[in-house]
Every structure is written in C-alpha cells, then in structure tokens.
Amino acid sequence: IAQHAGFCEGVERAYRVALETAQPGQPVYMLGNLVHNRQVVEKFKQLGTISVKTLAEIPAAGGTLLISAHGVVPEVYDEAKARNLLVVDTTCSWVKRAQKIAGEYAKDGRRVVIVGDKNHPEVTGLLGWSGPRAIVIENEAGLKNLHFAAGDRIGILAQTTQAAERFQTVVDFINKQARDVKAFNTICGATCKRQAAAV
Fold first, then answer.
1. What are the φ/ψ torsions at residue 174 (nearest 5 degrees)?
2. Are 75 and 97 in contact (CB under 8 A)?
3. What is the full per-residue pLDDT of the chain (199 aa) written as tens digits?
C-alpha cells in the first residue's frame, strides 16, 4: 500500500460532516454522491439519506441539502434558498479555492480554461463559476483544435485531482497561442502526494 493512500483531508471532513447531518429527523438530500466511493454511498443510503440529481426532485416540504465535496454551480445555493432548504456544504477547501479563482478570472474578463474531466462533478461546478466562454481541456488531443482570438485574455486552472504534468502541458501550449495568460495550479497537495507515492 502506498504511503499516502485513503481519504484526503477534504473527503475526511465531508464524510464527518455528512455523518453528523444524516441523523434521524428532517429528511436529508444529497446532491449527487458525497465522494467517489461505493462503500460511502451505500452507508449513506442505509442512514436514510436521499440521493438526488437536481433540486427539482426534492419535495416542497423542505429539509436539508448536503452539497458534496466536489462542489456545485453558484445557482444551486440560490435555488436551495428559494426552496427553503437548509444547506450543509461539504465542498473541499481546495475546490472552493479553485471556484474562487475561476470566478475572479471571469470577473476580470478572461476566458477560463479548465484542465480536467468534463464529466466530473467538480468540473461541472467549476464551469458554473467560470463564465459562459469557459472551456474544458481533458488531454493533449484537446489542444489540437484550440485557437484563441487576438484579443483573448486567458485564465487557466485545473480540476484538483489532475496530474501536474497534464496541467503544465496545457499551460505551455496556451502560452504559445496567446499573449495575456494567467495560470494557477489548483491541483491539491493530497493529489500530488498520492500520485508521487503511487509511482
């Protein structure tokens, strides 16, 4: 077993908070899965937590909404408030930081490039913070058709669980394509430790 294995701090916190929340009483709804772990998903099912894909699935009676460690788009918070849901946010602090940076890039008028898996819930959330012109680059093949307009200002960040080499490849490529590029490595420390230990 690699030296650094198992839950990272962000997942440990999300799991602990979710366990405290999933107590008998008012219904607890989980948007998606708390983490990518079958045993954890099954445990919360046994505790009576109801998994939903959208807030529209939650009855009007209200209850508690658990936001997973992967984070969500900003609109979820507004919709939860409108539905009178108590929000328990377990978004990982590294993901929160990436969301903040994405929002700052968008506010600064930059076109945001996210290095990550476009189908991952974290990336879906990041897209929501990144403005309408944001794009996701999954791998080197995705760089082939990537072109920017002359005046484009670019902001680059990564899904927190990406490989550092992939992120750097994208940054190097875009630096050759555009003049005004800001890149922020948002890969979390636990990811880097686990990747190195596994190798």
1. -70, -35
2. no
3. 888 888 888 888 999 999 999 877 778 999 988 888 889 889 888 888 999 999 999 987 779 999 999 999 999 999 999 999 999 999 999 999 999 999 999 999 999 999 999 999 999 999 999 999 999 999 888 898 888 888 899 999 999 999 999 999 999 999 998 989 999 999 998 888 888 888 8
Cβ neighbors of 78 (< 8 A, separation 6 or more) are none
Nearest to 35 by CA among 5, 64, 10: 10
List the catalytic residues.
122
Task: Give CA–CA dist 163/33, Å, rounded.
Answer: 23
To the nearest 10 degrees (0 to 180), the angle between helices 121-129 and 93-107 is 30
- Is the pTM higher than 0.85? The answer reads yes
- Tokens standing for 174? 């875009």
